[in-house]
Amino acid sequence: MAALLAVGLLGAAAGAPVPCANQEIVLEAKPLEMDYRNNNAVLRDVVITQCGMRIQAAEANIKGGLNFEDSKWTISGDVRITAEGGSLSSDKAIVAFRNKVISAATITGAPAQFEQQREDGTTARGHANTIDYETTSGIVSFNTNAFLSYGRNEITGQQLVYNIRTQSVQGQAKPGANIGDGRVRIVIQPDKSVTLPNKENEKKP
Description:
Blueprint: E1 3-7, E2 25-35, E3 40-50, E4 53-63, E5 70-83, E6 86-98, E7 101-117, E8 123-134, E9 139-150, E10 153-163, E11 168-171, E12 185-188
Antiparallel strand pairs: 1-2, 2-3, 3-4, 4-5, 5-6, 6-7, 7-8, 8-9, 9-10, 10-11, 10-12
């Protein structure tokens, strides 16, 4: 039977907009191993939700107990994170909690994947060896072998930064890297809906 745990501050009025800091964290999982002496646990079929954000994975390794004040959980196996119209997927992730808020997630894979349906009707898709997501700022950072596409634009670099709220992207050099290492390559694909004139069929004057 799955365990269900809700943690949060529930003092806001019903129906009013509630900041994430005041919303509960809900954890659903099946306990696999519980080490009460060292206060560690291994959970499976994990689902964590808060403030419209959903994190799910096959397994979670927790050290220091179910602490949402200041802790980091290692989750693995078909990791999927959805938030603010975007989704992240990978093999492994580290989820950080601070002050009873899901504050950040770092996902790694071969590669880690990102996708968001944009307001202009296009879909932003990206991947990298590591992707960092900061919940407070809405910033998604693609690190090492980074790739991002949206519309007819394709951007590659060692590090790319994408804001899922403003739906804007910028390239950024890795700290300590040489100037040449921070180069970003942008490819704009042609608009296939535009038909070029056939010169053979053009009327001669």
